[in-house]
Write a structure and sequence with these properties.
- By secondary structure, this protein is of the alpha/beta class.
- It has a single domain (5-231), classed as Rossmann fold (3-Layer(aba) Sandwich).
- The protein has helices at 19-27, 52-65, 79-88, 122-128, 136-145, 152-155, 179-186, 213-216, 218-231, and strands at 5-8, 32-34, 70-75, 93-99, 116-117, 149-150, 170-174, 202-206.
- The strands form two sheets. It has a six-stranded parallel sheet, with helices on both faces. A two-stranded antiparallel ribbon has the order 5-6.
- Helix 7 links the parallel strand 7 (170-174) and strand 8 (202-206).
- Helix 2 (52-65) crosses helix 3.
- The longest helix is centred in the N-terminal third of the chain and has 14 residues, at 52-65.
- It is globular.
Length: 232
C-alpha cells in the first residue's frame, strides 16, 4: 500500500494551491492531505504572533494524524519547516520531496523585521522567479488569493538536533533551475540549501518549468509524487 501524501505549499499560499495535483493523486488511489500553514488562512488572519515553530508544529501534527509513515512534499519556502519536521518525527516520514525547494538550515532572511511579507508586484515576481508555463489566468488567481507570509518564516530558524533526519529518504524536484545548478549552489553556502550538504539519501529529478509546478505541470508533478509514495 502506498504511503499517504502530505502537501505543503510555499510562501503566500494555502492548501488550494495543490488542488490539481491532489485531484490527480486521488484519482490514482492515493491518500492525500494538503495543508494551509498558520497565518495563511486569509488576508484577515493575525500574523503578528505566528512563529516558525507554529509552522513546524502544524506539519508534525498532520504527519502524526496520517496513521502511517508519509511522503511529505514541501514547496519553496516550506522547505524550512518541512526539514524541521523531519527532525522532530523522522520515524513517521517515509520520504521528503522538496518541490523547487530545499532543506533549509538557519533563517532565510534574519534581518527581516516586518510582521508579514506581501506577495511582490507582478513585475517584481517576474524578475525574481521562473514563471515558465504559467498562464495569465493562473497568475491572476495567485495574485487574488495570495496571503502575506508571516515574518517569522523569514527571520526565524528552526532548531535541528536529531541526526535521524539525515537518513530520511529525500527527493529534490528541480523546476526553476536544473539539478546541476542547484548542486553547485549548495557549495556557495546559502542557508536555504544547507541541509543538502548533510543528507545521506538524496535523489534528484529535473522537471523544467515554473517555480510553481503544481500549476504549470500538475500531472507530471503528481506522477512524481505518486511514484515516491508507491515505492514506500
Amino acid at each position: 500500500m502506498a504511503a499517504p501524501i502530505i502537501l505543503v505549499p510555499g510562501f503566500w499560499l494555502g492548501a488550494w494551491a495543490w488542488d490539481e495535483v491532489a485531484e490527480a493523486l486521488r484519482r490514482d488511489g492515493h491518500e492525500v492531505k494538503a495543508l494551509t500553514l498558520p497565518g495563511l488562512e486569509s488576508v484577515d488572519a493575525d500574523r503578528s504572533e505566528i512563529t516558525m515553530e507554529d509552522h513546524v508544529g502544524a506539519i508534525c501534527d498532520a504527519v502524526r494524524a496520517a496513521g502511517a509513515p508519509v511522503v511529505l512534499a514541501v514547496h519553496s519556502g516550506a522547505g524550512a519547516p518541512g526539514y524541521a519536521a523531519s527532525d522532530r518525527v523522522p520515524e513517521l516520514i517515509a520520504a521528503v520531496v522538496y518541490v523547487d525547494s530545499a532543506p533549509a538550515k538557519g533563517a532565510m532572511n534574519p534581518d527581516f523585521d516586518g510582521v508579514e511579507l506581501p506577495l511582490p508586484s507582478a513585475e517584481e515576481l517576474a524578475e525574481e522567479e521562473n514563471l515558465d508555463g504559467l498562464s495569465e489566468e493562473q497568475l491572476e488567481t495567485f495574485r487574488r488569493r495570495a496571503v502575506p507570509q508571516p515574518g517569522s518564516a523569514l527571520r526565524e530558524a528552526a532548531e535541528l538536533s536529531n541526526d535521524a533526519r539525515l537518513d530520511v529518504p529525500t527527493v529534490v524536484v528541480c523546476t526553476g533551475f536544473p539539478a546541476e545548478r542547484v548542486k553547485a549552489a549548495v557549495e556557495e553556502g546559502y542557508a536555504w540549501l544547507a541541509g543538502l550538504g548533510e543528507l545521506r539519501d538524496v535523489t534528484w529529478i529535473d522537471l523544467p518549468t515554473s517555480h510553481w509546478p503544481m500549476w504549470s505541470r500538475p500531472a507530471e508533478l503528481a506522477t512524481i509524487l505518486g511514484d515516491v509514495a508507491a515505492a514506500r
